[in-house]
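Submission sheet (multi-component)
Chains listed below:
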Amino acid sequence: MSTTSLPPGLQIEKVDERIMTLNVGPQHPGSGHMRIIVKIDGDYIVDADPDPGYVHRGEEKMAEYRNYIQNIPHLERPVIHDSCNVLYPYCLGVEELLGIEVPERAKYIRVIASELNRCVYIQYWLAIYGIFLGHSTMFMWPAGDRELYIDMLEKMTGARVTHAYFVPGGIRNDVPANFEDMLLRRVNYFEKRIKEYAAIFYDNPILISRTRDAGKLSREDAIRLGTTGSTLRASGVDYDLRVKEPYDAYGELDIKVNTLKEGDSYARSKIPWLDMLESCNIIRQAVQKMPKSGSVRVKLKPNPKSGNDEVYKRVESGRGSLGCYIVSRSAAEPYRVKMSVGSFRNLICMPYLLKGEKLGNMPAVYWSLNYWPVEADR
Amino acid sequence: MGTATGIIKALNSGIKHLAVKRFTLRYPEQKLKLVGDGYQYDPNTGVGIAGYKGRHMLFHDHCTGCNLCSIACEGIAEAIAMVKVQEEWKQNKKSIMPQIDYGKCVFCGLCVDACPFYALYMTNDYELSSFTKEGLIYTPAQLQVKPNIAQDVELKFDNPRGATHG
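Outcome: structure written.
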């Protein structure tokens, strides 16, 4: 037998007789392809090794062969439910490279679109969390209610998912007539609907006994392991890029950062729900402060070029901080585009959380990390 | 809150929803109303007009065969090919017009943004399924047809029992 080392999971290892190795995945352990190699002793996990990379699409390499505008449709593919937020840092970066100032009205419409998109993403995430825990009502309700915002985004952008709405220089088109009325009716109804999730899901003793104290992440560990987004806020760290590094119109809005102290699966599942309620408030504020008319897009040259420069911009996406690093070498195409995604950073803490847990708790811990396989693989 | 109270509250919430209306669109019979006549773009102002990004519509009397839509699609979907047409137009010396393969198109609408002659728009038509792959390739003559679909259902919020369609 050759001595070359095989990839993890394929090696023939000498293990304890009591220990069994399980491969969870790579066919959809949740949503998206990803494998977790779990070693169990009876019902308890002794070791967990996440193995991402099955849905690697080479987005970053693809970006080097396309010009700044042609990069828009494929860069939003990693998370199609959250496509406005995924595209946001790229657009902010290119705007800084080209030295464009976005019109005031476009900034507010961007905020509204990305908050709507955040809710759409979280509802989908919550639906899967529900079905992971065997709560099929919690699958049906969010999956139905997210239709309200998908509808709204369809009217604004012209597509249900993968909107291709943000461009460097603003947004593709102005909002339709009667926009504020349509939006506020939906926001009010949506807020009323998601408040009803408390009785059936979040205050449900069965859910609490299932997820309370499962996969506990302390405040120190959350900071040390570099987690972000809802995972970090559930461990009691008050960190939200919309407040700490406000971009576009977020600086002028009053945003409350939701934090919980427990750091367990229950807290991690509750933070996105609280974020959705906060998103409704942000949308209402943005609609009020939005300039009623004006330009929404700066006209770019057909094939914009920028000088020798590099830029790093980040935004708060549905899964946490999402950064985009762009290097430009005076060409129509970017020299390098690198995305730093929240999903991958949250995955790092998973082996620590699963150690000593029961195998039945694995889905609850895994999905509470707000992890999206396709985004992590890019 | 005690365990029993919590379970009763959860069950009660479920029972209450037996009487709450769910907004279900009965799709083939009902079709959702969309904004406008589809996504359009004004090259003068550089801003689009809100609308659904569905099948394209090609205005033969404006198209100059300049290839810009096909160049915009390179590297995105490569769905647009320029083909020879029999018609003769004064502005279209080469007599070529875009032919779109909807098996490849991602409906991003960047071809519409690229057209400087108001020749290519998008429409509300999203029912493009076909039994063959060739059926998804729309020739310039097919793209000329204006779709006529009854889309008139909207979400209504005035019912106290919940939002409804229709």
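Remark: The beta strands of chain A are 19-24, 35-41, 44-51, 166-167, 170-171, 308-317, 320-329, 336-340.
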